[in-house]
Design brief:
Helix content is about 45%, strand content about 10%. α8 packs parallel to α10 and α10 packs antiparallel against α11. The protein has about 375 residues and is α+β, with helices and mostly antiparallel strands. It has two domains: about 110 residues, Glutaredoxin (3-Layer(aba) Sandwich); about 260 residues.
């Protein structure tokens, strides 16, 4: 989107760039950008509209995550201002301020990288997640999955379900509060979820994966190579493999695994996106995507026995933990830790209701834990309690 040609045009015409963030079906955004473009001051800028859902890497770098937002950049990609207002008069006044500053020589502030120093994760974070759930923090699907597992192990927590506040209808579905949900999303992250829970055909997901393991952001096929999409698709394919024992899905997951390692690796975690332009060159180790990557790598290790994948899982969750204390991130870290530290391998195909269980050809019995075979899952204690 922020192409070399666009940057060249900005420099040639000596104009700042206004990046207006919109979203699918955002009527307020459509009306606002129309009014902004009609302002006389807007003629002194180039304005690009960007769908923040399709291009979250730009949203992460140029905003606080709010839509609509108008971010102003110099031709050298210095950030000159971020306007979150929907008041056209206020926007006009701020644009005048910014443009005047630009022609007086102000080129903006250099965009910062986000590279948190990794922090070792302890098991105590599971209590932070449970505290957030009990405090009615809006729970996404990983928080719900985590809660259901913990409450199955420690029955005292099952009483807390009535205070859980679902983030969306996906969470309501997992809690059993909705029997059916609309599974018609165009985005890979949601298609992956629907595939995991049998609400969409796996073929819908496979159409979004390239031969080299690169994953498209959506069915639009405009953007690709985002960590969150790679690992969500990877997790869906691992689940599909375990439920069918069809090696095709494991081979797809391996392609995704290889793509991430070869293209998104950073010494302190994993980049949020493939480098495509000057903005995506700025390193951003997004915590939620890294925490989800922790789950993918932990599962890939459990299923294939690839020891390096366990190391990648630890790197991803330590990066995520350093970057955010959001309960959604902590829930994913907790799930990854459970798989790394309390893994139970099985020779029976899925689906599995216990987060500790993963299929492995190495398992020669129903449940294999630390080299010992078990016939009943209840015989295996979890180290968290």
């Amino acid at each position: 989107m922020i192409s070399e040609k666009l940057i060249s045009d900005l420099r040639f015409y000596d104009k700042p760039l206004g990046v207006f963030f919109t979203a699918d079906n955002c009527k307020e955004c459509d009306e606002l950008i129309k009014k902004i473009k009609e302002l006389p001051i807007s003629k002194r800028l180039m304005i690009e509209e960007v769908n923040g859902l399709e291009y979250p890497e730009y949203l992460n770098r140029l905003t606080r995550g709010m839509i609509p937002t108008l971010s102003i950049l110099s031709p050298d990609l210095g950030i000159m201002g971020v306007i979150e207002s929907t008041d056209v008069k206020e926007i006009e006044a701020k644009l005048r301020e910014i443009v005047e500053a630009y022609y007086k020589g102000y080129k903006g502030e250099r965009l910062s990288e986000f590279i948190p120093e990794p922090l070792e994760v302890g098991k105590e974070i599971i209590y932070d997640v449970m505290d957030a759930l009990l405090a009615s923090y809006p729970a996404d699907f990983r928080m719900i999955e985590f809660y259901k597992f913990i409450s199955s192990i420690n029955k005292d927590y099952s009483k807390a379900e009535k205070v859980i506040k679902p983030l969306n209808e996906i969470s309501e579905f997992l809690l059993g509060r909705k029997k059916t949900i609309n599974a018609n999303s165009i985005y890979t992250t949601e298609i992956s979820f629907y595939t995991i829970y049998g609400l969409r055909k796996v073929e819908d997901l496979l159409q979004l994966i390239g031969d080299d393991g690169i994953v498209y952001r959506s069915t639009r096929k405009q953007n690709k190579g985002l960590l969150i999409d790679e690992v969500m698709a990877g997790n869906a394919l691992l689940t599909q493999y375990e439920n069918t024992l069809n090696d095709t899905y494991l081979n797809y997951a391996k392609k995704i695994y290889d793509f991430i390692i070869n293209n998104l690796s950073h010494e302190k975690g994993f980049r949020d996106t493939l480098i495509k332009d000057e903005l995506s060159k700025i390193t951003f180790l997004e915590p939620l995507a890294n925490s989800e990557a922790g789950i993918f790598f932990a599962r890939y290790w459990a299923i294939t026995g690839e020891e390096k994948s366990a190391d990648f899982a630890k790197k991803a969750i330590n990066c995520a933990f350093a970057g955010s204390s959001d309960p959604r991130v902590l829930a994913r870290i907790s799930i990854a830790l459970i798989k790394l530290q309390d893994l139970i391998r099985t020779n029976e195909k899925g689906p599995y209701s216990d987060l500790r269980i993963e299929f492995s050809k190495q398992a020669q019995c129903k449940y294999l834990k630390d080299g010992k075979c078990y016939e009943k899952i209840e015989e295996i204690k979890i180290s968290y309690f």
